[in-house]
Design a protein that fits this description.
With about 525 residues, this protein is α/β, with parallel strands linked by helices. It is about 35% helix and about 25% strand. The chain contains 16 helices and 18 strands. It has a nine-stranded mixed beta sheet, with helices on both faces. A five-stranded parallel beta sheet has the order 12-11-10-13-14, sandwiched between helices. α7 (about 235-250) links the parallel β10 and β11 (about 250-260). The chain is globular, with a radius of gyration of 26 Å.
Length: about 525
């Protein structure tokens, strides 16, 4: 099997590091973000299934000329040069490369933030195929004062600030602007030039190759022992379960817990799908009464999350102890941890890689002394969906919108009751069905209903009504990090409003959330 080509991003604290990774992954090139001070030699040797084809040094908030600024160790830099691995420095990364070559950095007379025009004045592999002037996105207070003669300046800004350079002999390139930001004209082409022209990436990320290598890795790790999977029915846990089943068969034990906070008929559908179509070793537990009892008269969303997480752990732990194994032991727990969770939990100031405690079944591995298997901790959501399609999961499951771990509890902006859950389930069911009927569902990243803690006066059948208000939310996004509200046509909203109010007792008013992320979040709680 061919090794997959890899671009390593060394993070110096940039707000755009994840965006760099996203842009590269969108070109089907595998990339990873690591803290700037990792042991590069150890990292290269540990990546047995990958070819390290290039290094990107991110931007960052520090000043290269500050006393305690973050630097790439000279030995690591020399190692990359010796191995002829191309290096691209972006913003702070460019200034750091200049510093390493003996150039001078100073506080810029004119700081550049936001849109800036640059002029490309010399031929460059990195900027090939572009017009002479580009609108780019800058974000820097320092700039390069001087460079050694052997480094070629390839562009300058309208403020006469050095905007890019290259040292072709050692495969080193620098950009003062941010090609990963949408505001930079031809940014994707610049990234392509680095990946395919300079780094000569050829072996792209393929779902089939990932499945093959990850399957072999899991088999070797598990041996004759058993793996537990908390199967919620969401995209991540579902794809993880099928991947693990392919790797270890009946050594995988899945547990689906109905916490009473699921969408309409969700648990029934999940159990039927995986038992009938995938022959999973699946245990179903109805623990809805336990969860709803614990949530009685609880209003605070953080307290809801804590109660739901702790109750889940107790139920899961109790059921795990009841499982009888003929040989080996239950030694592992599979989680659907995704790469954004990993990125957000890694500090660029150190090599820590601690997963957020709230993710999936937070706290469970340590308490149960189970070793984690996280097959997707290197992937984004859209890549997990591609893996799921390759594994044969149905489209309607793969394309499902994200659903919060605490379920409908955080879509009820007050205390949780059976009646409120009934109302929200019915509204949600109509909403999602209408999105599918109008062929809008796949155009939307996430859509859901929220039950507000207010009631309003209405007129129904010539009678006064005093019933609940529902807020509808629908957003477009690529990865959930930023989002904008979906602009429905009036016809759809009219049909939807009539259908919900006419069919769901307890609702007499609908409102539509037109806020974006940021400043708002996607979910309300």
């Amino acid at each position: 099997m061919k090794k997959t080509d890899l671009i390593l991003i060394l993070d110096f604290g940039s707000q755009y590091s994840q965006l760099i990774a996203r842009r590269i992954r969108e070109l089907n090139v595998y990339s990873e973000i690591q803290p700037y001070n990792i042991d590069i030699k150890k990292f290269i040797t540990s990546k047995k299934n990958y070819n390290i084809k290039g290094i990107i040094l991110s931007g960052g908030p520090s000043s290269v000329i500050a006393k305690n600024s973050h630097k790439l160790p000279k030995d690591d830099f020399n190692l990359l040069i010796e191995q002829n691995i191309p290096i691209l420095g972006i913003c702070y990364g460019l200034q750091l490369l200049a510093y390493l070559y003996g150039g001078k950095i100073h506080k810029a007379k004119v700081r550049e933030y936001g849109h800036t025009v640059i002029s490309i004045d010399k031929k460059s592999d990195l900027l090939t195929g572009l017009k002479n002037k580009l609108n780019v996105w800058m974000s820097h207070g320092d700039s390069i004062q001087s460079l050694p003669d052997f480094i070629k300046v390839t562009s300058v800004s309208k403020n006469k600030t050095l905007s890019s350079f290259e040292y072709k002999k050692e495969n080193v390139y620098g950009l003062q602007f941010h090609p990963e930001v949408n505001h930079t004209e031809c940014g994707t082409q610049i990234i392509k030039n680095f990946l395919f022209r300079i780094c000569k990436v050829r072996n792209l990320f393929k779902p089939s190759s990932f499945i093959e290598s990850k399957t072999n890795e899991i088999r070797q790790k598990v041996g004759k022992d058993y793996v537990l999977c908390a199967l919620s029915g969401g995209v991540d846990s579902s794809v993880a379960a099928i991947l693990l089943q392919r790797a270890i068969g009946k050594q995988l034990v899945c547990i689906h817990i109905d916490n009473g906070l699921m969408r309409k008929d969700e648990s029934k559908k999940v159990v039927e799908l995986f038992r009938k179509n995938f022959n999973l070793n699946l245990i179903f537990i109805d623990a809805s009464n336990a969860f709803l009892t614990k949530l009685k008269n609880v209003f605070d969303p953080e307290e809801k999350r804590k109660i739901i997480g702790n109750t889940f752990i107790k139920v899961f732990e109790r059921e795990a102890k009841r499982i009888k194994i003929k040989k080996g032991k239950i030694k592992f727990l599979v989680q659907g941890t995704l790469y954004p969770d990993v990125i957000e939990s890694v500090s660029f100031k150190g090599p820590s890689a601690t997963i957020k405690s709230h993710h999936n079944v937070g706290g469970l591995p340590e308490k149960m002394n189970l070793e984690l298997i996280e097959p997707f901790r290197e992937l984004f959501k859209d890549e997990v969906r591609k893996i799921g399609i390759e594994l044969g999961l149905p489209d309607y499951l793969i394309k499902r919108h994200p659903f919060p771990g605490p379920g409908l509890a955080v879509r009820i902006i007050s205390n949780v009751t059976k009646e409120k859950l009934r109302i929200l389930r019915e509204v949600d069911d109509i909403y999602i069905n209408e999105l599918q009927n109008y062929k809008l569902y796949d155009n939307i990243w996430q859509a859901f209903a929220v039950l507000l803690p207010i009631q309003t006066v209405g007129v129904m059948g010539d009678m006064r009504s005093y019933e609940n208000v529902i807020a509808l939310r629908a957003v477009t996004s690529k990865d959930g990090m930023t989002a904008d509200f979906y602009q429905f046509k009036k016809e759809f909203l009219t049909v939807l409003s009539n259908k919900i109010i006419n069919n769901v007792r307890g609702v007499n008013r609908l409102v539509y959330d037109i806020s974006s992320k940021p400043p708002s979040t996607i979910e309300w709680e």
